[in-house]
């Protein structure tokens, strides 16, 4: 694989570290790419913990193959090649990493293995296009899962990272014609999965939440803490799409069905009426972390992460992630009496 270039600083330093078996220098160089590679693996797998594992697997493979790197390609390209193939190998061995038809007729499919991605682990490099907001939002990650693995890799390399066809073909050991064909099929599927979303993934996009989004999250939190079901209901769009992961069969596609389900499960009744909530973001999306205190307990304990897609001042999609008993995303397991909201 070649990028037709003279090796730069990272490439030369990597080659020197490989030749001298300098593990410390090797780790120092490759660690700079961890966040970029981890987001790449997350897009491929839709699962934060799997993405962490495959990033670590990538670094193990890189160390084992270190002497094969000659600097003909950029170090970044070489690392992405290894990471992509690590993910493809992982997917080949798993039969539980594809969307399944929703139990609700006409509701499409569900990705039960979907996990949120912490914003603090996103790349910090402002030149890195992988942090465009739309390309880490849950709807995008779910849509990508509907692509066959190799087609998924082509789409991410070409349309998200903006790689030219020959470079993507080289990484995947395919012909340029095969890459072009796979990309065309992938784009059709993505348009079907995201009919109302922007499809130009490589153009700049804001990372900041809008005032509208911040206001809705604040109201959502206030409704929970005040046990105000009417206020909560008023925040929902009538065609709300709600799901609770990883529970199968929890998907509903109207606000009424969602609220009916919450009421029947005891929301805002004894045991589900003492809430503390914290505003946050995951996947560059607005979210609320819900802490619940049960009768007899002294603390509010991590219960749920509610990720919100907000459109025109209403919650259009609400994806809940069960966080009970999980030390997840560096969130505190409990909130003490003096914990303030962020």
Question: Could you walk me through the main structural features you see in this protein, from its secondary elements to its overall organization?
Answer:
The relative contact order is 0.10. This protein has twelve helices and eight strands. Mean pLDDT is 90; it is low at 338-342. α1 runs antiparallel to α2 (23-31), α3 (34-45) packs across α4 (48-64) and α7 (149-160) packs across α9 (176-193). The radius of gyration is 22 Å and the shape is globular. It is of the alpha+beta class and 342 residues long. The chain folds into two domains: 9-193, RNA polymerase sigma factor, region 2, helix turn helix motif (Rna Polymerase Sigma Factor, Chain: A, Orthogonal Bundle); 211-335, Nuclear Transport Factor 2, Chain: A. 42% of the residues lie in helices and 15% in strands. The strands form two sheets. Strands 3, 4, 5, 6, 7 and 8 form a six-stranded mixed sheet that branches. A two-stranded antiparallel sheet has the order 1-2.
